[in-house]
Amino acid sequence: MRRFLMDKLVAWKNTAHHKPLLLEGARQVGKTWLAREFGRMQYDNVAYVSLFDNPAMANVFAGNLSADRLIPALSLESDTRITPGNTLIVLDEVQEIPRAMTALKMFNETAPQYDVLATGSALGIAMHPGSAFPVGKVNRLKLYPMTFLEFLYACQQDSSAELLRSQDFALIDVMHERLMTWLRYFMYTGGMPEAVSTFADTFPNVDFNEIRQVQTSLVEDYRDDFSKHTDSQPRPVVSTLRLNQVWDSLPAQLARENSKFLYGAVREGGRGKDFEIAIQWLVDSSLALRVKRVSTPLNPLAAYEDPNAFKLYCLDVGLLGAMSGLNARTLLDEDSLFREFKGALTEQYVCQQLTAQHGQVPYYWSAENSSGELDFLYEQDGHVIPVEVKAGRHKQAKSLIYAQKKHGYPIAYRYSATRHSDNGVIKDMPLYMAGIV
């Protein structure tokens, strides 16, 4: 598989005096595969050590954290001779042994000659009070589910992927229907590597029920994590029940006409204090994307954050479809897939693409006393870029047109199921270009 984050890993390796690297992301998005593949391609050796359910390593990291003690132990555990510059040390699931995070600080300060890459999640690290995160001592990258372009490469549709990257819209328009077909495949399959592999390995004889089984299994694995992490804490800060209630509410929350997150839609009479910790848990674990509202759609967006309003998306469009019970037969209809749940899947897809492209979740804007709303906003080169998402081929976008006239954005995008056009004010883009332009 081709993951674009590989380029950033290579850049990290080639940066002089680089710090240890923490590769974060949700479970099953491909962190372990990417770390090992990076090591295989860029180093002579990979000293891979999994810290998951590893009592021997727990004992090692419980003691002195000097390089003279850790390097021989890691060499023995990985059965690999570790030499500076030629060996990548991979500490997989670093959150399982909190003291291993402290060791990253040691490597940065006293043994910078060793290249160390740790995989983990912000959630797992934060769940261990008393084990401080090594602020300023590590570099951090985040891996998200696969993008549409990565999906095309995985399915050996390299020519289509290269065409999209070229932005040759004269030719893209000719190939529009073919590209929309592949987008429908992606909207159903999503970007979780196991689901993508299942699709790619069997195409064109794809068993969509098998893909759905993979997705359902992933959703259940995440549920198991809820109880694992909450029940293992001496004084749980969030209950498994609350996590399941918020997680289960995502499809219904996004399918509402106004998809602003409502606590009362999780449970009748629900309030922020009941669910805010559960929401933060899901966000920290990268299972949910929190799109915050801004009161004014201007730069810098963070200065206009509204702490009381947000939308909550799933980490992956395929998993959201599985949680919603989306029928595979919708793939047969040209546009119905994009209109499902009042366009919720389409918005999820665009949000996911923008997040992966820019490395951070976008914002949204809604007017205080009217129905005006901009689906997404992000910053690029010091400018705010507004985005409107249309689930079908109808391109009416009053809010975007009004905001463009009022604020004079240098670029405004409207994504829909139609071909590309540009009237000099708003750039109309087919949905498959989200996260590419």
TrEMBL record:
Which residue spans adopt a coiled-coil conformation according to this UniProt entry?
none
Ranges for domain AAA: 18-152
Membrane-traversing stretches? none
Q: Which residues form the DUF4143 domain?
A: 236-392
Entry-linked Pfam families: AAA_14, DUF4143
**Protein name as catalogued:** ATPase
Write the lineage as a comma-separated list. Answer: Bacteria, Bacillati, Actinomycetota, Actinomycetes, Bifidobacteriales
